[in-house]
From TrEMBL:
This is Response regulator transcription factor. Residues 153-218 form the HTH luxR-type domain. It comes from Fuscovulum ytuae. It holds the Pfam family Response_reg. Signal peptide: none annotated. Keywords: DNA-binding, Phosphoprotein. Residues 19-135 form the Response regulatory domain. CDD domains: LuxR_C_like, REC_NarL-like.
Length: 220
């Protein structure tokens, strides 16, 4: 860290690039985003794979110009980690990157002072646009999130039944329907019915999407 003439802390810089701390426990996502940002943006990227590692980097090498944290990585604990990161950032923006957050998560993050919510499904080019907006001092929220947040009917849905939750957890383990049938001693049509129902309730396009949504909602 450096001090300016007024005694304020200023972030370390590499040339004209802004320093970005990107933390995510998904190695492939982390590497793809970091590589793209390093080659096609004005950001100098530092990475971490857990919240503890990210916090340690913020304390040792920060504050960073922007900090972007995976909502569900180890040690993050959702809103708890976000608030801690905001404290460590010393007034600089902190955003989160996630799958499909629930309206409750969005509301909590916004209330805590999040600088932006970036969806992992948005792609690397949208990531750069979002970071540029955050860097300019604006708050970034994808349009789809704003629509769902302001439309209670769009979020209305039944809770998952205990059986659906059980099957969802089996899906998250990578099991196919036939494996779930054997392990839970259920008929194949019954499993298919429950899979279709839980996907509908979660608003998921497929089994993988259901797993991502369930993880963001803390169901698995």
């Amino acid at each position: 860290m450096q001090m300016d003439a007024t005694g304020s802390v200023t972030p370390k810089v590499t040339g004209s690039k802004q320093r970005l701390l990107l933390a995510d426990d998904h190695e492939m996502i982390l590497e793809v985003f970091a590589m793209f940002l390093a080659n096609a943006s004005s950001f100098d990227v530092v990475t971490a794979r857990t919240f503890e590692e990210a916090a340690a980097r913020m304390q040792k090498d920060g504050p960073f110009d922007i900090t972007l944290l995976d909502w569900n990585m180890p040690g993050m604990h959702g809103i708890v980690g976000l608030k801690r990161a905001i404290q460590l950032s010393e007034g600089r923006p902190v955003g989160i990157i996630t799958g499909e957050p629930s309206p409750k998560i969005v509301d909590e993050a916004v209330a805590a002072g999040v600088a932006g919510i970036i969806l992992k499904s948005s792609g690397v080019r949208s990531l750069v646009n979002a970071l540029n907006m955050i860097a300019s001092g604006e708050r970034y929220l994808p349009f789809d999130l704003l629509v769902r947040r302001n439309d209670p009917e769009a979020n209305a849905g039944d809770d998952l039944t205990p059986k659906e939750l059980l099957i969802l957890r089996e899906i998250a383990k990578g099991k196919r329907n036939k494996e779930i049938c054997a392990d839970l001693r259920l008929a194949l049509p019954t499993v298919k019915m429950h899979v279709s129902s839980l996907c509908r309730k979660l608003g998921a396009k497929n089994r993988l999407h259901a797993t991502v949504l369930a993880r963001d909602l803390g169901l698995i």
